[in-house]
Amino acid sequence: MRLDRIDTIDAASSSWPSQGLETLGTCPVCGHAGREPLLTELRDLVFGISPGTWTLWRCPACGAGYLDPRPDRATIGLAYAGYYTQEAAHSSGPVSAARTRRLACRNAYVNQRWGYSLAPALTGPVRLSAAQQRRADRVVRSLPAPSPGERLLDVGCGNGAWLDLMRAGGWAVWGVEPDAQSAARAAALGLSIVPDLLSAPFADQSFDAITLNHVIEHLHDPCATLARCQALLKPGGRLWIATPNLDALGRVRFGRAWRGLETPRHLVLFTAASLRGILAAAGFESIELLPPTDPARGMFLESARIARGRRLTWLARARVKWQAWWADRRVSREPERAEELVVVAVRRAPYRAPP
Ligand SMILES: [Zn+2]
Questions:
Q1: Which ranges constitute the DSSP H helices of 52-124?
Q2: Ligand 1 centre from 115 Cα, in Å?
Q3: How many angstroms separate the alpha carbon of residue 68 from the centre of ligand 1?
Q4: At the topology level of CATH, where does 142-347 sit?
């Protein structure tokens, strides 16, 4: 179906075009046929730009959640009109002295911890809180600085801002971005961008690291994507993934208003166990769930705003912040209940029989 034929749909009240739907019947993560409805009558409450009403099913075998039916590949673009990664990578406004100092402090920590030479950076020892350190680790996605010539691929690179930073950090970088407008912004930074991972002309075992930052939940076939990532990585190469967590305390607290659902752009939602399972099945090992980088407050405030349908009062904000503070305390003991899953894994080396 041509998208320009249906671009006048009133998103708030209309249905997804029926010829643009596909049905699954089985779990797209593990293939199990049994399932239970987790949430029904879901709509695009986050941006309000997408038509349709959706059911999120939960797989009792692996724990993942998935939409069924869901938008097919030909029409999924309807759900992305004006999506935020189409913004320019770098703003051109003046940078305050305080912000420059925070950046120099963060870079100094990243340089010391991960071996980079990012600038600007303070010289001498830097003191960051544990939470600030985790956020700084996130800046380089827990990837140590590369040896000369090491290659990095970011799948779903958006406007390319992060790849631009990692190129400055010494990586040879490539990006995958299906959205033409975002890809054009990334290309304007001089980055090499391809539109699709599965058909991209990369050689097997040609990358040292691959990252997917809030991408895997958008994919129609996460198994095929991870299999391709496994094939593209050198043995011992690192995969880094961040994705919303279906088992998040916020999902239980806010239900259909939880920000992480983002229906219908999020086709599959993982739990820690289902993410470990799909990675192991794709040939990864040393699968490590990292501590969450962000406090629950942001997700809780956005979810509360979605649930209310308008801005929160001062009192409501205070109450939600208090609930998020308690969620953070619990997540410090149970990271598998965090709002987001952040995982690193290593591509398993092929088995060689002993001589
Ligand atoms: Zn499953």
A1: 97-114
A2: 39
A3: 13
A4: Rossmann fold (3.40.50)
Dump pLDDT digits (tens) for 16-44.
998 999 999 999 999 999 999 999 999 99
pLDDT digits (tens, 9 = 90+) for 181-236: 999 999 999 999 999 999 999 999 999 999 999 999 999 999 999 999 999 999 99
> What Cα–Cα distance (Å) separates residue 91 from each residue in 94, 104, 143, 158, 191?
9, 18, 26, 15, 18
Q: What percent of the chain has pLDDT over 90?
A: 81
CA of 176 relative to ligand 1 center, distance in Å: 27
DSSP string, 34-69: --EEEEEEE--TTTS-----EEEEE-TTT--EEESS
The encoded tokens of residue 330 equal: 């619990």
Ligand 1 centroid distance, CA of 259 (Å):
22
Band of pLDDT at residue 67, cut at 50, 70 and 90? very high
**CATH 3.40.50.150 occupies which residues in the chain?**
142-347
Q: How far is the CA of 264 from the centre of ligand 1 (A)?
A: 19
Task: Report yes or no: 236 and 208 within 8 Å, Cβ to Cβ.
Answer: no
How much is the CA Rg of the chain, to the nearest whole Å?
21
